[in-house]
Structures are given as structure tokens and as C-alpha cells.
Amino acid sequence: MISTDEVFDFSTVPLWYALCTNEQCPLRSECLHYLAGSHAPDDMATALCIMPHNCRDGKCRFFASTQKIRMARGFSHLFDKVLKNDFTQMRKNLTFYLHGAKFYYQYMRGERALNPEQQQWIRQLVKDYGYDWEVPFDSYEEHYVYYRNW
């Protein structure tokens, strides 16, 4: 659930994301669709919406949690403690995992955020090479998870 001190940034809502304005829904205080719908700008004329009849018996198949995930940006110091013998192969494995050199550099510089699964994969890669230090991501930020759940 969103904190009352936190400001919701509607500009982060994807254009395809369905909005909900059902004030009678018992799930509204914890639903991202309702949160987005309640923050739609006044000049917004049309939107994809979830019809109120989808909420039955306190359940909605479109419910999406307002819980945020912790994203990491950048890993510019990842290889600082890596031995020279491991560097090339580790970097090749990571580049392959991140779908090529272009994306590797975007993630490494922090232009793209790493989701928790990607962060865990990188941590496991470091452990697989025998290192026991924590992966030094450059920064972290919290994000809502927008995805199609129907």
C-alpha cells in the first residue's frame, strides 16, 4: 500500500496499463490498478479500464499489488576484486545473460535497472567463481511492477 507521504508519479504508468476507478472495491487500497486510476490526470480523456463487475465476492482477477520491488542500477565496480584469470569468462557469461554487449553496457552504466532476479543471477555468478563478497551495485531504487496479469 502506498504511503500517505509518498507522491504517486502517473507518468510511470505504461499506456497499456488498465486503470480502475471502482470506489466500492474492497481491494482498492492495495491495488495498483486502482492507485493508477485514482491518479489519472484531469485532462486524460480515455483509458483502458477494468470494469467494476470484475470485483466479485471480494476478489478481482485483475488485482495487482502496490508492493514495490527493489531495482539496482549499475555495477561499475563489479570486477574490482575479480582475479585477472576469471575476468574475461565472467564478463562473457554476464554479457550473454544480459543479451549482448549493448545491454551489458547499459546495465553496467545504470541506464537500465536490474530486477531482483537479474541481481540474484549476478550474485550467483560471483559465488560460482568462488568469491564471497557482496556484489557492489551502484544504487538501488523502488519500482511498482506493471505487467499484464490477465
Give the structure's gist in a few sentences.
The protein is α+β, with helices and mostly antiparallel strands.
What this model shows, in words?
The chain is an alpha+beta fold. The protein folds into 2 domains: 10-60, no CATH class; 69-143. It has helices spanning 32-38, 84-97, 101-109, 116-128; strands at residues 55-56, 59-60, 69-73, 113-114, 139-143.
Strand content: 5-15%
| Shape field | elongated
Structural class: alpha+beta
Low-pLDDT regions: none
List the secondary-structure elements in sequence, H or E.
HEEEHHEHE
Q: Counting H and I runs of at least 4 residues, what is the number of helices?
A: 4
Give the domain tally.
Answer: 2
Number of strands: 5
Q: How are the strands of the biggest sheet laid out side by side?
A: 4-3-5
Helix content: 25-40%
What profile does the largest beta sheet have?
Answer: 3 strands, antiparallel
* Gyration radius from CA atoms, angstroms: 20 Å
What are the defining features of this structure?
two-stranded antiparallel sheet; 2 domains; elongated; single chain; 3-stranded antiparallel beta sheet; alpha+beta; 150 residues
